[in-house]
Amino acid sequence: MLAEKKERIIMGIDPGTAIMGYGIVLEKGTKIELISLGIVRMDHLDDHFLKLQRIFEKTIALIDEYKPDVLAIEAPFYGKNIQVMLKLGRAQGIAMAAALSRNISVTEYAPRKIKQSITGKGTASKEQVAAMLQRLLNFKETPEFLDATDGLAVAVCHSFQRISTSNTGKSYSGWDAFVKDNKKRIK
């Protein structure tokens, strides 16, 4: 059996087309330390493709600055508005592409799974998730937007999965693995 790395940096992203939240944690064994959290604003941009470009560039900049070992990302939830779902899926895909372009593995988690792992309740509110993260990681300042703590929650969720035996997230170690697992989606 291969010895697991003692430390790893996990970057979590809550994709969005108006605001993207992110959180970065350092995992040392079973302990987690907050490195950074924040948001990337795109609500001032009118063009959807400019928003996607900003997501890609900011994700690459975060990767280059913090050198994460893995990207954990929130999967789009099912909604009634197909146009919103399409835009969110594109935002998620762009962030995933940025990580994969730097050979960083990607794991995605359903919103319910993230909330469940942080609070013990899959229907928890954003405020409940943020409050639990503040207790877990000992930070006092309240982020301007809950999108930042949503991104942080994805990173913490991923860390918790290492301990758990029921990892239901999808992981890809690079483009080849993604393509192999998604042949029907690629033309």
Question: Which tags fit this structure?
Answer:
187 residues; alpha/beta; Nucleotidyltransferase, domain 5; six-stranded mixed sheet; 6 helices; 6 strands; 22% strand
Description:
This protein is an alpha/beta fold. It has one domain: Nucleotidyltransferase, domain 5 (2-Layer Sandwich), CATH 3.30.420. Helices cover 45% and strands 22% of the residues. The protein has helices at 48-66, 82-101, 111-119, 126-137, 146-163, 175-181, and strands spanning 7-14, 19-28, 31-41, 70-74, 105-109, 170-172. It has a six-stranded mixed beta sheet with strand order 3-2-1-4-5-6. Helix 2 (82-101) links the parallel strand 4 (70-74) and strand 5. The longest helix is centred in the middle third of the chain and has 20 residues, at 82-101. It holds the Pfam family RuvC. Its cofactor is Mg(2+). It catalyses: Endonucleolytic cleavage at a junction such as a reciprocal single-stranded crossover between two homologous DNA duplexes (Holliday junction).
Main structural class: alpha/beta
Uncertain parts: none
Q: Major sheet: size, sense and barrel closure?
A: 6 strands, mixed
Round the mean pLDDT to the nearest integer and report it.
86
Beta strands, count: 6
**What's the helix count?**
6
What is the string of helix and strand elements?
A: EEEHEHEHHHEH
Strand content: 15-25%
Give the end-to-end Cα distance, rounded to a whole number of Å: 38 Å
Q: Give the tally of structural domains.
A: 1
GO cellular component, one term: cytoplasm
Pfam family, one: RuvC
InterPro entries: RNaseH-like_sf (IPR012337), RNaseH_sf (IPR036397), X-over_junc_endoDNase_Mg_BS (IPR020563), X-over_junc_endoDNase_RuvC (IPR002176)
Binding site for Mg(2+) 1: 14, 147
